[in-house]
Amino acid sequence: MSSKRYKKLPEKTSNLPSEVIEKALSLVKKNCTTKFDESVDLSFQINNKQKKNEINIRTVVNLPGGSGKKIKVAVVCEEAKAKDAKSAGADIVGGDDLVEKIKSGEMNFEKLICTPSMMIKLSKLGKILGPKGLMPNPKLGSVTEDLKKAVTDAKSGQAELRNDKDGNIGVSIGKKSFSDDKLIKNFNAIIETLEKEKSNNTLKGDLIKSAFITSTMGVSYKIKLGKNI
């Protein structure tokens, strides 16, 4: 049953013509009428049905305007690198002891980073980390010798772009309290990353079939994208 607040929102907005991000963002913010700081979210439908193979996107993007989320970061590394991880702001740092805690199901963190030599030990915990999306991945920058950069990036605002089996990508660009400038910078960073993914994949036509923007408790609007994506 829809609330009185929701009933006051515009109807069938997804049927409206697509708008440039600046206009669409203004409309979304106008409909953020709840008392809490709603998330501003993007939804992409990718053109993943190719004759030769499906397009699979999995990458990370550093959001210049931040994400508005406090991410609890854990680092598995050698003792010699623990200081670097802690100074960069890691919440949990450990070696074999932390691997054992994870093995027993103790995972009170949202992001896991490790050094290449420790990845051998973590790779055996795929059944525990995999389903939660916590397994470190070199492609995503979470298996690295540069722990300082990895932790700083994760803490300052990082988003993962990953399509599901139906070709959908969902990602947040921040909160309604963010300035339009910050949200647009985050949007542009995501578009640039997707453009790079398009050039890395051999596909015919556009990568993105459709794009929408909405808020946690709002309605969605279609976004007009550039020709090169």
Describe the structure in brief:
The chain has 8 helices and 9 strands. It has helices at 4-7, 21-30, 82-87, 96-103, 116-122, 126-129, 147-156, 180-200, and strands at residues 39-46, 58-62, 73-76, 92-94, 111-114, 158-162, 168-175, 208-215, 221-222.
What does it look like?
The protein contains 8 helices and 9 strands. A hairpin with a 5-residue loop joins strand 8 and strand 9. It has 229 residues and is an alpha/beta fold. The protein has 2 domains: 13-67 and 158-222, 2-Layer Sandwich (Ribulose 1,5 Bisphosphate Carboxylase/Oxygenase), CATH 3.30.190.20; 73-156, Ribosomal protein L1/L10, domain II (Rossmann fold, 3-Layer(aba) Sandwich). The model has no long low-confidence stretch (mean pLDDT 90). Helix 2 packs across helix 8 (180-200).
